[in-house]
Amino acid sequence: MSTAQHLSIVPAGSGGASGSTSGGASGGTGPKAPKQVFWDRRELDALLNVYGRRVAAGDWRDYAMSGAKDMAVFEVYRRASEMPLYRIEKRPKLRNRQGAYAVIAASGMILKRGHELKQVLKVLEPKQISLVSEL
Question: Which of 88, 104, 119, 121 could form a disulfide with 74 if both were Cys (CB 3.0 to 4.6 A apart)?
């Protein structure tokens, strides 16, 4: 046998090709697939509330979501063919440091970072300017 060939020996009952009752999706001793980070229902509600208000105002038109091993991303677009205006990231590993949530502008500048998503999303709300009349 040449050095380029490798043999794989699987002990009986270790969850190989033959049906084994031990192991399964959660009880095996083999390598586990990395968990994917994504938005939970409460977070999605907060994200879509802000998104809906900005769509109604005519500021935004499209969004995209993605999840990865270490972060979840929600991106908002003015037009579907453009680069995202803002990127909202959730990075659980930063939870105990600066906070798990961040809003990042198209330029790459971090606009706000924090532990609470609703507080971080306030940076995306349009400024409320009221006219003060003279007496």
Answer: 88
C-beta neighbour count of 47 within 10 angstroms: 21
**Cα 101 to Cα 51: distance, rounded to the nearest angstrom:** 16
Q: Given the structure tokens 């043999």, which residue do they identify?
A: 7
- Tell me: the pLDDT tens digits for 56-104? 999 999 999 998 899 999 999 998 778 899 999 999 898 888 888 999 9
pTM: 0.68
- Nearest CA to 16 out of 6, 3, 29 is that of 29
- Residue 66: strand pairing partners: 73
CA distance 16 to 91: 35
Q: Find out whether 16 and 7 touch, Cβ atoms under 8 Å.
A: no
Each domain of the chain, given as residue ranges in start order, spans 41-124
Helices of type H across 1-135: 24-27, 41-56, 117-121
